[in-house]
Structure formats: structure tokens, C-alpha cells
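Student: Please help interpret what follows.
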Amino acid sequence: MARVYCTKKLKEFIDNVDETLPDDFNNIKMSDWNAHLFFVDKRKCMVFVNILTYYSVFIADIVKKDLKNIDEIFMMRLKEQLIQDGFVDFIDKAVYLTDGVKISFFKTNNNKKIIGRINDFVDMFKVHCFVKYEHLNEMDVVYENGIINRTLTGKYTDIKKTWSRPIENLREIIKTSA
């Protein structure tokens, strides 16, 4: 089961969020994500960012009725993104990133590192939308998400503060766990 820690805005949108954090929330797993709800052209969009790798998955133009299928929508977008980012051999193991197909939403874990990354990624997404496409309906979300996943970010666990990309971070974790 994927654990997704929601920002306050997303928590209010979902309504079905566990108000208590898991006992082991400080023990970050590969299937732990943070998520945020933001607006582009008055349309709701969500971004999921993997805590350990900063790998992101954007879902554009989401509505309230989509929430009953959010597990399937997220898995479909994750697989699309993995293919776009060159992880074709990894598609069958995408559940490694989610620890199954079920998502459990929790209140925010107040992780400042990941919240900062989310804010950066959302700003990049909006700039790509307005500068390149002028409107969300015209935007190739998967392609632009791939560009964001190639942005220099560093690693969540890196004490030395060296630069790396979310795609590289994911590839490294896949290699060490295989």
C-alpha cells in the first residue's frame, strides 16, 4: 500500500484522509509519496512526488468524481511516466513504487525538503504550461513531467548536497534493490 502524505489543500479536496500519521512515518519507504493539489487555468491538478527519489507524477484536470478511482488513475499515470522516462523494463515492477495498487492518504508529514521540491515542480509545471502551450488542454503533461523529472534536485538522503536528477535517483534505487 502506498502511503501518500497530503498537503492541507489536497486534504480538503479528498476529505477521506487519515488524521493520524503511521507509527513508522519517519522510516521512509520507496512507496512513500507526498501529494499536493494546485490550480492551472482554474482546473485542479495533482502532483505526487516520491520522497526518496523526488520522482514526480502529475495528474492534470482532475475532478472530485475521479477520487473514487484515484488508485487506478495514479497507477496508470505512473506507468505512463515510467515509459516516457525510459523505464520500460520496470513497468511490471511499478508496484515497487506503490507497494501494491491501494493508496492510503494521510495528513501532512510536514517534510520541508519534499514540500520545497513540490513547490519547485509545481512552479516549473505552470511555467511550461503557460509559456509553451498557453493552456492546460494543449499541454503534453507526460512529456513536460519527464522534463521535470530530469531537473537537477539532489537526493533526499544526501548529506553532501550533490546534484542528481529524480530519474537518476530512481534508477540507482532500482539497481540496488534488484
Notes: DSSP finds six helices and five strands in the chain. Helices lie at 8-14, 70-84, 95-98, 112-133, 141-148, 166-177.
